Backbone:
């Protein structure tokens, strides 16, 4: 404690020393502070006054500063709005453009604009409500576009259905003109190289233009160029609809719908009218509609990618071809007019050539034409049967009289009659045949021309055409003419004189067959010496007709004899004969003499056979009369009277009414009766 107290005292001493050392300084400092106090108060007053004045002066600055701050905020907001608007404006402009395109019906462009909006513009402003509304509206617009484009497509399909006949007519005219040009060029080349397609100048038209000049009527004679299918049909609805469905990714739906609708239209087009077979206009309308349909399909095939394919069009064509062939078979069977059948054939040829030009197979159509050719020949045969009947009915069955050289040349120009002895005879004179012979010969040639017309444009060789002509001519001779001759011969009103003239006529027609063969050869340039050339069967045709006429002569002669014999009125109980032959028998003998004079123009055997047959039949008739079972008794006077009649018969037989009998051959016919 003592040490501690000592230490404290030492410290206190040090502190006191220090305080004493600094005391003066402290006193000086206090004195300075007292001086400064006054100055500090003055300064405070000045600072307070200055602050007051600053506050008063800064109030306007504060107001202006606040205005500036507010303006800066507004400026920043405006800048932000401008930036956002600049981002939205392209979207709004594109949407406005979309609306304009919809209003202008530029639907494909509208779909492209939608794609741009969805892929480029909407992502930039997707946070805005108006953008969401636009996005929600786009699917509806797409559906509207699909419906509108489909409606346009339906209108297009309806339009081409209505205009398909005009399209087809135009296409067939083009094909016809092109073919006519090709044929003319070929003909010119043939002439250049010395090839004559037709020697006979009877056919003035070019071989592929027969009857074609009446096939189509020109709508405008001054029209220099024919419109194409593109000129007649606006295909833009199909293109637009295809592009629209392609953009929408629904191309398959569109293709299926288009093909389905076109198949329905094809079935409608292929359905013929019930009266189609009555006029050529019915067939023409049917063909033009079908051609128009397939021309449109071919155009669609070549200008669109995948809407229709070649396999699809071929399938559709094969279906249509089967229907067409069935329809033509059915309706052509009703045609009885050969001119209508010929025009139908020409239409089928143009129809086939037109579609062949568009790449469709038409071989079956040409096969059908061969069937129709047979039918055409049948209609020709029926028509010529009527022609022959009219000729036979109008014939007077007497030799053709001529009084001068001019009349002779007229007959010779119609029928190839050659007889040097006849030419040496002086006028007036008579041709051995009647008027029907040159008329029939001319009509056979006309038949050949008519048959030839169908063979044109069938893409067949001259050999095949020659064979067709010869076969059809043979049918005319062996069937039609032969049938007409046989019917004529069997007619009751045809007498013995007419039958004799018919035999003479058939002889000359038979001789004229070789000229018909030459006529066909001149047309086709196919020599008769060719191995496969068909011969005309005129020889057998006219020989059969002659045999029938000869048989009819024998029959009618016997019937005439029976008619005279029925007039016999013997008195089987008479006591004395009349002293002269019966009147009926003398009339009969005179009749036979006059008839057998007519028979001098017949071949010898025919006249001899007729005479022998008549005598035998007369002998038999008299024998039956004498040996009649109902005859109970005969007086000697009646026998003597009957003997006078038999003597007249024997005298007639011995007078050689027909030359050529040897000895008493004809008299032997009455030996049994004697």
Residues:
């Amino acid at each position: 404690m003592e040490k501690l107290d000592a230490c404290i005292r030492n410290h206190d001493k040090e502190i006191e020393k220090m305080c004493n050392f600094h005391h003066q300084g402290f006193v000086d400092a206090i004195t300075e502070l007292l001086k400064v106090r006054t100055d500090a108060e003055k300064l405070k007053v000045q600072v307070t006054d200055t602050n007051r004045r600053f506050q008063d002066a800064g109030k306007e600055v504060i107001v202006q500063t606040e205005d500036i701050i507010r303006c800066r905020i507004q400026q920043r907001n405006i800048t932000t709005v401008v930036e956002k608007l600049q981002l939205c404006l392209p979207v709004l402009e594109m949407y406005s453009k979309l609306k304009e395109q919809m209003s202008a019906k530029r639907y494909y462009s509208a779909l492209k604009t939608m794609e741009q909006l969805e892929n480029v513009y909407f992502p930039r402003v997707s946070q805005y409500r108006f953008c969401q509304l636009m996005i929600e509206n786009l699917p509806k617009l797409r559906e509207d576009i699909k419906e509108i484009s489909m409606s346009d497509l339906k209108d297009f399909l309806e339009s081409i259905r209505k205009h398909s006949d005009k399209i087809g007519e135009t296409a067939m005219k083009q094909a016809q003109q092109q073919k006519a040009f090709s044929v003319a060029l070929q003909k010119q080349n043939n002439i250049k190289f010395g090839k004559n397609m037709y020697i006979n100048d009877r056919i003035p038209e070019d071989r592929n233009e027969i009857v074609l000049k009446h096939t189509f009527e020109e709508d405008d004679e001054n029209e220099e160029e024919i419109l194409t299918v593109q000129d007649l049909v606006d295909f833009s609805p199909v293109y637009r609809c295809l592009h629209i469905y392609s953009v929408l990714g629904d191309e398959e739906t569109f293709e299926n719908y288009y093909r389905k609708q076109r198949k329905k239209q094809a079935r409608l087009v292929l359905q013929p009218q019930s009266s189609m077979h009555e006029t050529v206009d019915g067939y023409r309308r049917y063909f033009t509609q079908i051609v128009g349909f397939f021309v449109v399909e071919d155009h669609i095939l070549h200008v669109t990618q995948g809407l229709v394919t070649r396999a699809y069009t071929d399938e559709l064509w094969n279906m249509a071809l089967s229907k067409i062939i069935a329809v033509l078979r059915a309706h052509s069977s009703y045609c009885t007019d050969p001119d209508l059948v010929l025009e139908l054939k020409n239409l089928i040829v143009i129809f086939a050539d037109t579609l062949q030009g568009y790449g469709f197979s038409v071989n079956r159509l040409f096969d059908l034409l061969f069937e129709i050719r047979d039918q055409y020949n049948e209609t020709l045969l029926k028509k010529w049967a009527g022609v022959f009947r009219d000729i036979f009915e109008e014939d007077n069955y007497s030799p053709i009289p001529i009084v001068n050289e001019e009349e002779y040349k007229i007959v010779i120009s119609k029928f190839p009659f050659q007889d040097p002895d006849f030419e040496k005879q002086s006028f007036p004179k008579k041709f051995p045949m009647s008027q029907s012979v040159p008329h029939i010969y001319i009509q056979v040639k006309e038949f050949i021309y008519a048959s030839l017309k169908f063979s044109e444009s069938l893409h067949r060789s001259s050999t095949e055409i020659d064979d067709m002509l010869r076969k059809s001519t043979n049918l005319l001779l062996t069937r039609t003419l032969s049938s007409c001759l046989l019917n004529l011969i069997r007619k009751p009103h045809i007498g013995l004189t007419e039958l004799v003239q018919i035999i003479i006529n058939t002889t000359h027609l038979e001789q004229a067959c070789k000229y018909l063969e030459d006529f066909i050869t001149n047309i086709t340039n196919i020599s008769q010496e060719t191995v496969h050339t068909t011969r005309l069967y005129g020889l057998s045709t006219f020989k059969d007709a002659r045999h029938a006429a000869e048989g009819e002569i024998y029959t009618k002669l016997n019937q005439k004899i029976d008619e005279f014999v029925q007039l016999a009125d013997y008195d089987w109980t008479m006591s004395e004969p009349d002293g002269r032959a019966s009147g009926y028998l003398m009339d009969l003998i005179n009749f036979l003499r006059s008839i057998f004079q007519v028979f001098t123009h017949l071949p010898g055997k025919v006249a001899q056979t007729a005479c022998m047959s008549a005598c035998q039949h007369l002998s038999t008739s008299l024998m039956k009369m004498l040996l009649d079972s109902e005859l109970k008794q005969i007086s000697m006077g009646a026998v003597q009277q009957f003997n006078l009649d038999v003597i007249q018969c024997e005298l007639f037989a011995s007078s050689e009414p027909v030359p050529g009998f040897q000895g008493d051959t004809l008299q032997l016919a009455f030996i049994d009766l004697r």
Remarks:
- The chain has a mean pLDDT of 82.
- The radius of gyration is 61 Å.
- The CA atoms of residues 414 and 438 lie 6 Å apart.
- The longest helix spans residues 2-103.
